[in-house]
Design goal:
This protein has 99 residues and is of the alpha+beta class. It contains four helices and five strands; from the N terminus they run ααβββββαα. The chain has a domain of 40 residues. The two termini are 18 Å apart. One of its GO terms (molecular function) is DNA binding.
């Protein structure tokens, strides 16, 4: 499912104009990106958490040149689904049929 599909489905279910739904979805993603870039985590009850995870400093290998590379500590965005979300997926019949 693409972002356009999500926007279309929300528009059909709520009766709100597609342009308004698009602006809202884009604003949501913008707030998530800006907040996480500012070091804040986002918690959406019943859905999940958008958090920044710290990756420690490590030494990696460049296989083609056979040299060591130092990768400094950094943060990466991560999503952790809520228990409600996980249970809904686990109990979904359509998921079980697809496997």
């Amino acid at each position: 499912m693409t972002k356009a599909d999500v926007i279309t489905e929300i528009s059909e279910k709520t009766g709100i104009d597609k342009a308004d739904v698009t602006a809202t979805v884009e604003a949501f993603f913008s707030v998530v990106k800006d907040s996480m870039a500012g070091g804040e985590n986002i918690y959406v009850r019943g859905f999940g958490s958008f958090v920044n995870k710290k990756r420690a400093r490590k030494i990696a290998r460049n296989i083609s040149k056979n040299t060591a590379i130092v990768i400094d500590e950094h943060f990466v965005p991560s999503f952790k689904p809520s228990k409600v979300f996980v249970e809904k997926i686990k109990s979904s019949d359509k998921i079980k049929e697809a496997v």
